[in-house]
Amino acid sequence: MSHPRSRLDGVIHAPVRLSIVAALAAVDSAEFRFVRDTVEITDSALSKQVSTLEEAGYVHVRKSFAGRRPRTHLSLTPEGRAAFDRHVRALRDIASGATLPGPAPPEGGEDRG
Q1: Of 30, 47, 49, 53, which sits with the fewest C-beta atoms within 10 Å of its C-beta?
Q2: pTM
Q3: Which stretches of 3-112 are DSSP H helices?
Q4: What are phi and psi of 62, to 5 degrees?
């Protein structure tokens, strides 16, 4: 299949997971709470989606303590960054009409002649 949609990553493509990966792509590492608030989802929803991303090898989860308080840090693995980059390139190709045959339609839409 040569259409760019064949390059979309099924794990990343789900809207919440795409949002999580995009947030993590912008940083080296982020606390769970930061990602939760950025993506605007609940703790349980984030935990479930992070588990899926971790199983795919895209996210690394690190637990630590700040005093007696547990902290969870999330980061993209090299594989996760590469998968995100491929996914975004495929989305850009789809959005730009990169696979359309022939010349692009004229600016301004249809010919209303």
Answers
A1: 47
A2: 0.82
A3: 10-13, 15-25, 32-39, 43-55, 78-96
A4: -125, 130
Q: For residue 2, give the H/E element and its range.
A: none
Estimate to the nearest angstrom the gap between the alpha carbon of 20 and the chain centroid. 6
101 assigned to some structural domain: no
CA–CA dist 62, 74 (Å, integer): 6
pLDDT (mean) for 83-100 = 89
CATH of the domain at 48: 1.10.10.10
User: How do residues 49-70 score in pLDDT, each as one tens digit?
Assistant: 999 999 999 999 999 988 889 9
Would 110 be classed as within a structural domain?
Answer: no
Look up residue 55 and give its amino acid: E
- Tokens encoding 109: 């839409």
Structural domain count, the chain: 1
What number of CA atoms fall less than 13 Å from residue 105's CA on the CB side?
Answer: 7
